[in-house]
Amino acid sequence: MSKILELMADNEEKLSAVGRALSSITRIQILRLLYYNSYIVKDIASKLNIPASSAALHIRVLEEAELIQIKQKPGSRGSMKLCSRKYDHLHVRLSGHNPDVEQVATVSMPIGAYTDCKVTPTCGIASANGLVGYEDSPSEFFRPERISAQILWSSSGFVEYKFPFPLKSNNVPSRLILSFEACSEAPNFKEDWKSDITISINGWECGTWRSPGDFGRRRGRLNPSWWDNGMTQYGQIVVVEITEDGTMINSRKSSGINLTKIALNPEKPITVKIGNKDEAEYVGGFNLFGAQFGDYAQDILLSFAY
């Protein structure tokens, strides 16, 4: 996969360092030389017919610009510096970010891409084409085919997902927004079947959304034709927004859990857990809907505003 270095005019020092590194024909020749192979300084000097001291100077400039990486390689007389390229493409955006315009990066997670779960009958998974495995058998939730799920349901328990951190290290999120379509889970369906569905992020309980029921009096707008009437059909959109001021669910304050507490780390995945707590007032199960089921053409979305 190609590695891309993305620069903006906002990052003046970095852009200046890269510009300086690319201002020399010799340094560009070194980058071309390193495109297919890695070389030690001595070999680079020999191939370009330049003094080793000059090659070392050019390599230091390229390293300072983070265009190449250097690793120590054992040699007959101590260690040697092995030089390799870091990127395949360079993208430069000269306009920069408008500080008055919020940027948003969104990760769309298929509902079947959970990394852990605890489910109880009634439970099951279905794709756009049919059931995945057998209903009311918790072990079926670990079938590889679960990745194709477009609806999943359980009378209690939880599902847990791991999201990547999509921002560059210099972009600090001001808001984290999680959204998904969900409802309660009752046998067949039951419009007045309450369920307290709790959302946790990175181990912090952000709040609980009380689903009013398991909706089935009309067909879901996106449901495939094979999905029978008389079953769960659609849900409601749940929006969880976390800022430094705390957490809101569907525009109502739900907790004091803020961005500082959930400690987003670019080097670690973000864990999202959705389900019923054992001690909840209404353990009414849950249905989660994918982009091809229910009323809303979306999977589980995690958005980062910065």
Provide a short characterization of the protein structure.
14% of the residues lie in helices and 35% in strands. The chain contains 5 helices and 19 strands. The strands form 4 sheets. Strands 6, 8, 9, 11, 14, 15, 16, 18 and 19 form a 9-stranded antiparallel sheet that branches. A 5-stranded antiparallel sheet has the order 7-10-17-12-13, with no helix packed on it. A 3-stranded antiparallel sheet has the order 2-4-3.
Low-confidence stretches: none
Succession of helices and strands: EHHEHHEEEEEEEEEEEEEEHEEE
CATH topology of the largest domain: Jelly Rolls
- The CATH homologous superfamily of the largest domain is termed Galactose-binding domain-like
Please explain how this structure is put together:
This protein has helices spanning 12-21, 25-33, 41-48, 52-64, 259-262; strands spanning 4-8, 39-40, 68-75, 78-85, 89-93, 104-109, 116-119, 124-126, 151-154, 157-163, 175-183, 195-201, 204-211, 236-243, 246-249, 252-255, 270-275, 286-289, 300-305. Strand 14 (236-243) and strand 15 (246-249) form a beta hairpin. The strands form 4 sheets. Strands 6, 8, 9, 11, 14, 15, 16, 18 and 19 form a 9-stranded antiparallel beta sheet that branches. The protein has a 5-stranded antiparallel beta sheet with strand order 7-10-17-12-13, with no helix packed on it. The longest helix has 13 residues, at 52-64. It contains 5 helices and 19 strands. It has 2 domains: 4-93, Orthogonal Bundle (Arc Repressor Mutant, subunit A), CATH 1.10.10.10; 104-305, Jelly Rolls (Sandwich), CATH 2.60.120.260. The model has no long low-confidence stretch (mean pLDDT 95). With 306 residues, it is α+β, with helices and mostly antiparallel strands. The chain is elongated, with a radius of gyration of 26 Å.
